[in-house]
Design brief:
The protein is an alpha/beta fold. The chain has a single domain, classed as 3-Layer(aba) Sandwich (Rossmann fold), CATH 3.40.50. The chain is 45% helix and 17% strand. The chain is globular and about 60 Å long.
């Protein structure tokens, strides 16, 4: 009855997936796996290798760098967060740049990269108790998750939240630029050929437009209690 669960949280860019996943992982003492950060880390690596300075579709020149790639998620006691390490380098503070944000959906649409990260992400299933967020966790990575959440929200609210986040980080960017980027990412996520963003049939939908993060957390905690109650019967 005390078996730890796999919780999959999917949804649109800036819809609150990561915030909910982080809050859940802290409350439940589960491991938090940020798959978006994994794609951002690959994007950072691609930028460093200057693959965007030439023909992106000659991606085969970049793929050899991914053969022995290693991801780690480590709790940062000082900053009270989970950091991502790629090949032992902590890149948590480097993957939220505007340059990475503008390129990540393009990188995430490349089949060879998705295939590589899908294998890595599925291996996390062996962990006891995980919360994983992304675009295709419930539909593709863990289709048999104990609980699937799908997050959405109006593009205006999502853009405003991302704009405020970037402003607090000292980034100089306009609200319209942020909104344009989120719309572009939505289109890339929805219409890519490999594992597009879609709501799993057995997922619970949460519209974060007018719901506070605290209420979202309480809603999901209640869902978890309901699942545990049903398992006891």
């Amino acid at each position: 009855m005390n078996r730890k669960m796999i919780i999959a949280i999917d949804g649109y860019s800036a819809s609150g997936k990561s915030t909910l996943a982080k809050n859940l992982s802290k409350k439940l003492k589960y491991t938090y796996i940020d798959t978006g950060a994994m794609y951002r880390s690959i994007t950072l690596l691609a930028i460093r290798k200057k693959i965007f300075h030439s023909d992106l579709w000659n991606i085969k020149n970049f793929l050899p760098f991914l053969i022995n790639i290693n991801f780690q998620f480590k709790w940062n006691n000082k900053l009270n967060r989970t950091d991502i390490l790629i090949n032992k380098e902590n890149v948590q503070s480097k993957i939220r740049s505007i340059e990475v944000t503008n390129k990540v959906s393009l990188i995430a649409s490349i089949p060879e990269i998705r295939e590589k990260l899908t294998i890595i992400q599925r291996n996390f299933e062996n962990k006891q108790g995980i919360v994983m967020d992304g675009r295709d966790i419930g539909s593709n990575i863990f289709p048999k998750s104990d609980l699937k959440i799908f997050m959405k929200g109006s593009i205006e609210i999502r853009s405003y939240r991302r704009f405020e986040y970037l402003k607090k980080k000292g980034k100089k960017i306009s609200y319209e630029e942020v909104k344009k980027n989120i719309f572009y990412r939505d289109m890339m996520d929805l219409y890519r050929k490999i594992s597009p963003l879609k709501k799993p049939k057995d997922s619970i939908e949460i519209d974060s437009t007018l719901i506070s993060t605290e209420k979202q957390l309480n809603m999901v905690l209640q869902l978890i209690e309901n699942i545990k109650f049903c398992q006891k019967k």
